[in-house]
Every structure is written in C-alpha cells, then in structure tokens.
Amino acid sequence: MRIHETTLSGVKVLELKIYEDDRGYFKETYRTTWSNDLGLVHDFVQDNISRSYHGTIRGLHYQREQPQAKLIQCISGRILDVAVDLRKKSSTFGQYYSVVLSEKNHKQLYIPEGFAHGFSVLSDQAIVHYRCSRYYDKTSERGIRWDDPLIHIDWEISKPILSEKDRCLPLLSSLKEEDIFL
C-alpha cells in the first residue's frame, strides 16, 4: 500500500495493493495495523454503503459533537470524493481536497475528524463504502452547502441531483462558532 499526503493536514489517499489474475482481483481494504502505522483512527465502529446515480451530489456533511473520521472507497463506479477543512485554527480552514475514487483505481480517502465530507457520482451509478469512527448521531449532524461560493468546489457535474436537506444547508460564512471545529 502507498500513502499520499494531501494539501489538507491529516487527509490521506491510500493506494491499495491489488492481486490480479485471470479470475479477477483480490485486495485488503482495511487492516488495524495500517491504521496504527499511519496514525489513523483505528477504532472504526460503523460501516455504511450507499448507491447513487450519475449526477448525484451527497454532502457536505459532518457531525459536530460526535465528529467522525472516515475511510471512503468506491467499490463500483466512479466518484469525486471531497473533504473540506472545518478546523478554525487550521491554515487550510475552508479549503477542500478532492480525488477520484473508483472501482478501477482502488484508492481510498482517509478524512480525520474536523472535516465535512461529500461526493459526486461521475459514472452511471456508484456504490460507496465508508467506515466511520463514531456512530451516526442525528443531533450532532451538520452540513454546508455543496455550492458554497467561498469554497468553490468543482464537482465535475453540470446538473446535480440533490436531496432537499442538502439543497438547504447553510453557507460556511453563516455557520456559528459552535458549528465549527476549534
């Protein structure tokens, strides 16, 4: 496995080792020792899988009181995965990092606590698997708008499909201090 640091401190791209032959391929997608060696959260407690169709944008979501680190991979299709730094004291506060994750490139994105997360679907459909370091807590759920002009994310989608909830999320500039990580 190869690890790539990104422009956002703590966010890492993992390139997995693939064993491929005439039958297909095999890969390990997670091992606790990797987490220890890399200084990642290793007590993931919840796995989620979503299926979405081309043009869908999910996000940007985070949990404030019960923040989650996430390890994301696309097991079918192709997505643009995005992390936005919401750590107020960070030199990259309000900046984002994006990477294409696909069933073909076998990359994963590790996002530590203190970030919002979202993705857009670039293929006809995509199945996304992600591990979370804390359980989903509806009362802790927060988000920022996908089209925030201060962040200016290029989602590589021309006509996004959004949930009503995601369409109505606040702009980063309107978040209260208690909704941002200090």
Compute the average pLDDT: 94
Order of helices and strands: EEEEHEEEEEEEEEH
Biggest sheet, strands in spatial order? 1-2-10-7-12-5
Question: What structural category do the secondary elements indicate?
Answer: mainly beta
* Full CATH superfamily name: Jelly Rolls
Number of domains: 1
Second rung of CATH, namely the architecture = Sandwich
- Specify the biggest β-sheet: 6 strands, antiparallel
- Give the overall shape: globular
Number of helices: 2
**Helix fraction bin:** under 10%
CATH C-level label:
Mainly Beta
What is the CATH fold-level name?
Jelly Rolls
Quaternary organisation: single chain
Description:
With 182 residues, the protein is mostly beta strands. The protein has a single domain (2-179), classed as Jelly Rolls. It has helices spanning 32-38, 164-167, and strands at 2-5, 12-15, 18-21, 24-27, 46-53, 57-63, 70-76, 78-85, 96-102, 107-111, 115-121, 125-132, 141-143. Strands 1-2-10-7-12-5 form a 6-stranded antiparallel beta sheet, with no helix packed on it. A 5-stranded antiparallel beta sheet has the order 9-8-11-6-13, with no helix packed on it. The termini are far apart.
Give a quick set of tags describing it.
mainly beta; 5-stranded antiparallel sheet; 182 residues; 6-stranded antiparallel sheet; globular
Task: Describe the SSE topology.
Blueprint: E1 2-5, E2 12-15, E3 18-21, E4 24-27, H1 32-38, E5 46-53, E6 57-63, E7 70-76, E8 78-85, E9 96-102, E10 107-111, E11 115-121, E12 125-132, E13 141-143, H2 164-167
Antiparallel strand pairs: 1-2, 2-10, 3-4, 5-12, 6-11, 6-13, 7-10, 7-12, 8-9, 8-11
